[in-house]
Amino acid sequence: MTESTPVDWELARTLAYEAGRAAVGGVETIPLAEADGRTLAEPLRTLTDLPAFPTSSIDGWAVRGSAPWRPVGRVLAGGTPPPLTEDGTCVEIATGAMVPEHATALIRIEDSVTGADGRVAGEPRTIPDRRLPGEEAHLGEELFPAGTPVDPAVVGVAATCGYETLGVRPEPRAALLVFGDELLTSGPPGGGRVRDSLGPQVPGWLRRYGATVGTVTGPVKDTLDAHLDAIRSALDTADLVCTTGGTMHGPVDHLHPALAELGASYIVNTVAVRPGFPMLLARVPGPDGRPRFLAGLPGNPQSAVIALVTLVAPLLAGLRGRALPPLPSVVAGADVAGRGDFTHLALAALDPAGRTATPAGHVGSAMLRGLANSHGFVVVRPGARAAAGDLVPFLPLPLTPGERP
After folding, report:
1. pLDDT at 83 (0 to 100)
2. Among 146, 234, 289, 325, which one is most buried in terms of CB atoms within 10 A?
3. Contact 163, 211 (CB under 8 A)
4. End-of-domain residue from the set 250, 285, 319
5. Full DSSP string of 295-308
6. How far apart are alpha carbons 265 and 114 in whole angstroms?
7. Domain assignment of residue 116, given as a range
8. Which residue, among 53, 35, 52, has the nearest Cα to 144 in the 3D structure?
9. Residue 88's closest CA among 111, 70, 62?
10. What does 160-211 look like in DSSP terms, one character per residue?
11. Is 281 inside a domain boundary?
C-alpha cells in the first residue's frame, strides 16, 4: 500500500458511494412504529384499493332518488351500512363513513333543510363529496420504490395501507477510534497538548448520516501494535470504523502500516480537496466474507468533517441503499477563491430563504468556529473561482436550514 495521486473530489464521492452500494445489507423487518429514519428495502405496495370502500368526505346526508328524502337511519365512521333500497330515502352520514350502496348523491348538512314533516331537501354540489375505491391507489400499486427514505409521511401511508411491519435496510454500525498521544479528553488545552474535539462530535455526524454508533475509543497510543489492536477490536462489531489523525506518513502515523497488516485495500487514498486532502477510505476483509470499511479522517477538526462529508456520507448512503443526492445550487454571497488543481470546500451560511450562501470566517483546518456558524460548503471546482452572484454547487451539512447560525 503506497501513496497515490490525490483523487478528484467528485470521483472520490462516487467511489465511496459505489463501495457502499456493493456492500448493502439484506432486509430487516421491523415494526412500523420504529421505521422512521430507515430505508425501504422493498417496494411499498398497496394491500387493497385506497380507499378500500366509497367514503363520505362530508357530514350530511346520503340520499337515493329525488328530494324530499325520508331519513331511515344514520351511518358513522367504522360501520357497514345497509343499502338504500327505496327512492326518496336517505341516511345521515358522517365524514369518513362508508357510503351506502345505491346512494345517488351526498348532501352537505349546510346545504340541506329539514321540513316540518321530518323530510330532508337540498342540492348536491357539482363536485361529488365522496371518495371512490382506488381513487388514491389501486390494489398492488407501487407507492414507493426500494431505496425510499422512510419519514413520518411514509409511515402514515404504510399504516393507511394496513402494514404492521416494513422491510428496511439494516442500519450501518459505526465505531470511532481517536489517535494521538497529544490529546486531552478533559479540561482546557495547555502544556503542548490540545483538547480532543473529534471524539465528542464525530458520533453526532455519523448518527445524522444514518449510522448506529457503538464504541468510541481513545486516545489510542501512537504505536503500531496499539493501532492494530484497536482497529481489530472495532471491526469485530462495526461495519465502518472511523479513525481520527494518523493519515499522513509521519514518525507516529501508523494507520497506513496497520491497514497493510490487515490486508486492506484502498478505495480512496487522499483526495484533491482543500482543506482535508489526507483522508482515506479502505476496504477490510471480514471473516464472514462481507467487507468492512475504515475511513481515515485527518486530525485537524475541520479537515476531519470534510472527510466525513466527502467519503463517509456517500459510503453510508450506499450502505443504507439510498441514492446519492445531487448537490443543490445556490448564489454565492461573496467571492470564493479557488485552490488551484484542488476542489475548494468553503464553509458558508445560507440566508433564511436557503438561496444565497455567504462564506464564513474562522475556517482554518484546525478551527471549528466557522463550522459551527455554517450550513455547509460552497464547492469550487479545480481551476475555478466563484464570484459574488455566481450560481455555485452547495454541499449541505445534515442540518435543517435555519437551525443555525
Report:
1. 97
2. 234
3. no
4. 319
5. EEE-SSHHHHHHHI
6. 81
7. 55-131
8. 35
9. 70
10. HHT-SEEEEPPPPEEEEEEE-TTEESSS--BTTBEE--HHHHHHHHHHHTTP
11. yes
Amino acid at site 150: V
- Which regions in the chain score pLDDT beneath 70? 1-3, 400-405
Q: What is the pTM of this model?
A: 0.88
Domain-located, residue 227: yes
SS3 of residue 30 by DSSP: strand
Name the residue with cell 443543490.
328
User: Do 248 and 350 reside in the same domain of the chain?
Assistant: no
Query: According to the model, what pLDDT value does residue 40 have?
Result: 98
Structure confidence at residue 251 (pLDDT) = 81
**CA angle (354 as vertex; 349, 355 as ends), nearest 5:** 100
Q: Report how many domains make up the chain.
A: 4
Task: Return d(Cα 49, Cα 137) in angstroms, integer.
Answer: 6
* Last residue in a domain, options 299, 319, 339: 319
Question: Is 378 in contact with 309 (CB distance < 8 Å)?
Answer: no
Could you tell me if 194 and 86 lie in one domain?
Answer: no
| Same-domain status, 285 and 361 | no
The residue behind cell 458558508 is 348
Report if residue 386 sits inside a domain: yes
Q: Which ranges constitute the DSSP H helices of 246-329?
A: 255-261, 301-307, 313-319
Q: 1 lies in a domain?
A: no
